Amino acid sequence: MRTFGERLSDAVGARGPLCVGIDPHVPLLAKWGLPDSPEGLARFTDAVVDALAGSVAVLKPQLAFYERHGSRGLAVLEDAVPRARAAGALVLLDAKRGDIGSTMDAYADYLRPDHPLAIDAMTVSPFLGPDSLQPAVDTAREFGGGLFVLARTSNPDAGTLQHAVVGERTVAQAVVDTVGGWNAADGSGSFGVVVGATLAEMDVDLDRLGGPVLAPGLGAQGGSVADVRRLFGAGVRVLPSVSRDVLAAGPDPAALRAAADRWAAELAG
Ligand SMILES: O=C(O)c1cc(=O)[nH]c(=O)n1[C@@H]1O[C@H](COP(=O)(O)O)[C@@H](O)[C@H]1O
């Protein structure tokens, strides 16, 4: 079995590091001429998958926009995720789950191949304590999945909690160090952190992470490729992530591809 870290390396090597988020906001549905309904959601999602799953390394559906349509919204994802993976994209479910360990074990089932969604990796929240995430780490190891743990997020007031000092480290650094420990233990590089591309300055040390960094915030939140370069050193595997800025180019598939290609080309340049 190949680990998520290995599969991510291959995907980034072949396709570049760009991650495109699938965030079907109501204003975007309207801009695309689609209704705010499960049908509209399906047409939006299918269009993004058809346009981009054959070319970008990672697609990141935002679960919130599917859950708001209940079971019919989840059915849209259950249909789209296998097609995205079959076209060669890794699917990172943006779920931001976190709970006591015994419940976390159930959330981690998203990573099992027999789950109706069966994704490659998911975002998780560490704020119940590092040990609470251990069941998800175990499931990821068992099935070759990946986790991205919120460490230093892109929202403006993220530092309010993430800069709090515990012992001699910030909370954000404690998260990064915990995830680095998981990677050091198995060498898989399957465990990543989330660090926004919007930070004024890099205030966590990623040197011993040993895994990928998801860097959301490009475009709509003001982050740029220059910010990605400024914040992250060459030794870090960064997945710059953009949602609305690419999605706003739809529904024309060629325009969606062109928007993603522009970011990919700028990142490669
Ligand atoms: O985990 C995430 O992906 C995430 C973490 C973070 O710190 N900031 C952040 O914006 N995100 C997600 O990334 C996406 C950003 O969307 P855009 O601002 O439209 O590019 C949303 O789905 C957010 O929930």
Automatic annotation (TrEMBL):
Catalysis performed (reactions): orotidine 5'-phosphate + H(+) = UMP + CO2
The chain positions of domain Orotidine 5'-phosphate decarboxylase read: 17-259
Q: Which UniProt keywords apply?
A: Decarboxylase, Lyase, Pyrimidine biosynthesis
Active-site residues from the entry: 96
Q: Which InterPro entries match?
A: Aldolase_TIM, OMPdecase_AS, OMPdecase_type-2, OMPdeCOase_dom, RibuloseP-bd_barrel
Query: What does the similarity note say?
Result: Belongs to the OMP decarboxylase family. Type 2 subfamily.
Q: Which PANTHER family match?
A: OROTIDINE 5'-PHOSPHATE DECARBOXYLASE
Q: What is this protein called?
A: Orotidine 5'-phosphate decarboxylase
- Source organism per entry reads Petropleomorpha daqingensis
State the organism's lineage: Bacteria, Bacillati, Actinomycetota, Actinomycetes, Geodermatophilales
Whichever gene encodes this chain, its name is pyrF
